[in-house]
Amino acid sequence: MQQYIIRRLILMLPTIFVITVFTFGLVRVMPGDFIMAQMAEARGTPDQELIDEWRAELGLDENAMTQYVKWVGGVVTGDWGLSFWQNEPVLHVIGRALPISIELGMLSIIIGILISIPVGVISAVKQDTWLDYLGRGISIAGISVPNFFLATLFIIYGAKWFGWFPPQTYQNPFDSPTGNIQQFLPGALVLGAALSAQNMRMLRTTMLETLRADYVRTARAKGLRETGVIFRHAFRNALIPVVTLLGFQITVAIGGSVIVEQVFSMNGIGRNYIAAVQQRDYPLVQGILLILVSATLITNLLVDLSYSWLDPRIRY
Amino acid sequence: MVAGAEVVGDAGGAAPALATRGRPPHARLWRFARRRPLGAISGVVSIFILLIALGAYTKVLLLHDPIVTHGADRLLPFFSDSADGERYYILGTDDLGRDMFSRLAEGAKISIFFGMGVTLISVTVGGAVGLVSSYVGGKFDLVIQRLVDALQTVPLLVLAIAIVSISGPGIMKGFWVLAILSIPRPVRVIRGSVLAVREETYIEAARSLGASDRRVMLRHVLPNVMAPMIVLASYVLAVAIIIEASLSFLGVGAQAPTPSWGAMLSGNGAVYFSTNPRLALMPGLAISLVVFATNMFGDSLRDELDPRLRGSR
Fold first, then answer.
1. Which residue in A139, B14, B118, B189 could disulfide with A197, CB within 3.0 to 4.6 Å?
2. Residues 229-268 of A with CB under 8 A from B
3. Do A136 and B299 lie within an 8 Å CB cutoff?
């Protein structure tokens, strides 16, 4: 098992390498760099000498390879560079934004699980009845309604009916729990709805399969009560693909959070990412992408490891 | 719609046996509609929306120009006449006096063509790559799978935003970006099916009879992996439509004045919501409806085609 973990961790490195090279090249291929973006806002013709000096200061005058090597060296030693736009170390910016995104993500996933498990189980157990159709209809509606639409509706009707506006500044959960919940709940509900829809469909499918398995038939033949059959036997085995899905949902939560953070004005990773891309703030874009990719890879590893806990037949 | 049923019946051996095999196509359609009414309705709705998109493409449904503004006709309600009496607006106008019905129809065209194009490209290319890679196996397969894994680690929207920012915003660039980024998923899905089918006895029989790799892949493996691919296509379509709307919403997809549903939702729609909610509600509901219909249809199709999931009779 330990060997497996170590092997997986080592295998992560080439993937991270590919992604970092890719994103590094990506942002530098963009027309105009950070300095041009800043100059575009200034009036009058920019002084070429000033531009060159600025460029040298930011390290943009060297060729791409050198920049990449320097950046990788920095990352490994804990110096992720200075954000051009926010003028702070990238790690500080990320450190501020990450807890917000993590909290949003976790709340969304929890809400997703809370909704999807009862709906999914009921839908599978009562297949093809109106309950099934209702459950499937709701869950598909959850995936179909775009999250930016739902988020916009939240804000508009929240303001209209309840006079509520999303709090602008971050409320620390330890300082002000109610304020924190107020700020995160709408976004988490929006994201959670979509996540629950995916979970529910997967759970329904896997439950349907396991409910037709031989061991379930044996359990019923032995005279076990139906609820016992469902929860003690079918459900646990149906969970394995759902756990895989949960792992992917971390990625989905991050992608969806980009929009939700934008609409609800939450200063998380997603919002910083969009702004950084628009500003051509290379260090910040690279830093954020590095975090995202690493988080996804580590989550995949954790999901794979959890399989051996859920199904003892699976051993590494 | 019944392609899965027809081709599957061809392969023999362990192919899933559909009770509808051997019946004429219209009987199969009717049976599908009776057993899965919601799926059938969704299929009809999807076709209806496709027709709207085609109507916009051929300009038949564009009652008025979706882009030209009319200052005198701003924010008119449903079923109203224009200020100069020359035009009739079924669904009213937006804040710049443009006909909502035509804009919605044009938006349908954009979303549907975008979605179908992305789906077609990614499913065929991804399917082909996945089919060959999983069947052949070996080092080639390993490399492809590593690439696919790497591409899938970054969330689709995040990567799409970055790439579209490079190439400049615009619908066509977003289209190609998304088509390419959507390829990994079909590769993954088809891989699972191919790996299972590869070990079947009839494949072994075909090979021992001397069938070439190419023949085995095309004639025996492919028909048996079609069903999950068809379902996947409906999923890819839904995702593509939502991502196009998201990119337009964020301002990096379709550019004004192109009436993409997502763009209609962000700019004027939100601003005028308190007085004229329909400006934002209509495109939002349109997106939801299209995605709902395609998802529901794909779901029902999968339930119908996968024999393991049929309800107990």
1. A139
2. 251-252, 254-256, 258-259, 262
3. yes
The three-class DSSP label of residue B79 is coil
If one looks up domain B23-64+105-305 in CATH, what number appears? 1.10.3720.10
Helix (H) or strand (E) holding B222: helix B222-224
**Residue A115 pLDDT:** 86
B268 touches chain A (CB under 8 A): no
Assess contact for B67 and B97: CB atoms under 8 A: no
User: Which residues lie closer than 8 Å to A45 by C-beta, 6 or more apart?
Assistant: none
Nearest by CB to residue A277, choosing from B150, B155, B162, is: B162
Can you give the pLDDT at residue B118? 93
Q: Do A19 and B165 touch (CB under 8 A)?
A: no
* Chain A residues touching B284 at Cβ < 8 A: 145-146, 149, 152-153
CB-CB neighbors (< 8 A) of B244 in chain A: none
- Tally of CA atoms within 13 A in the half-sphere of A243 that contains its CB: 19
Is B81 strand, coil or helix? strand
Q: What does chain A look like in DSSP terms, one character per residue?
A: -HHHHHHHHHHHHHHHHHHHHHHHHHHHHSSS-HHHHHHTTS-SPPPHHHHHHHHHHHT-SS-HHHHHHHHHHHHHHT---B-TTT-SBHHHHHHHHHHHHHHHHHHHHHHHHHHHHHHHHHHHHTTTSHHHHHHHHHHHHHHHS-HHHHHHHHHHHHHHHH-----SS---TTT-HHHHHHHHHHHHHHHHHHHHHHHHHHHHHHHHHHHTSHHHHHHHHTT--HHHIIIIIIHHHHHHHHHHHHHHHHHHHHHHHHHHHHHTT--SHHHHHHHHHHHT-HHHHHHHHHHHHHHHHHHHHHHHHHHHHH-TT---
C-beta atoms of B288 and A148 within 8 A: no
**pLDDT by residue (tens digit) across A20-37?**
777 777 666 666 666 666
Considering Cα of B151, then B152, then B153, then B158, what sign does the dihedral take?
positive
Name the residue among A136, A144, A160 with its Cβ closest to that of B274.
Answer: A160
Of the residues B46, B151, B158, the best mutation for testing chain A's interface (the one with the most A CB atoms within 10 Å of its CB) is B158
Q: In terms of Cα–Cα distance, which of A18, A197, A131 is closest to B295?
A: A197
Residue A295 has pLDDT above 90, yes or no: no
Structure-token match 């081709």, residue found: B7
Write out pLDDT tens, residues B12-58: 434 444 455 566 777 777 877 777 787 888 888 888 888 888 888 88
Q: Could you say which residues of chain B have pLDDT below 50?
A: 1-18, 308-313
**pLDDT attached to residue B270:** 67
The answer to whether the Cβ–Cβ distance between A127 and B311 falls below 8 Å is: yes
Question: Look-up: residue for tokens 């093809």?
Answer: A128
Main-chain phi, psi angles of A244, to 5 degrees: -60, -45
> A31 vs B150: CB contact, 8 Å cut-off?
no
Q: Do A146 and B284 touch (CB under 8 A)?
A: yes
**Which residue on chain B is closest to A125 by alpha carbon?**
B311
For B238, phi then psi, to 5°, come to -60, -45
Across chain B, the runs of DSSP E, i.e. the strands, are 80-81, 88-89
* Shortest Cα–Cα distance, B154 to chain A (Å): 6
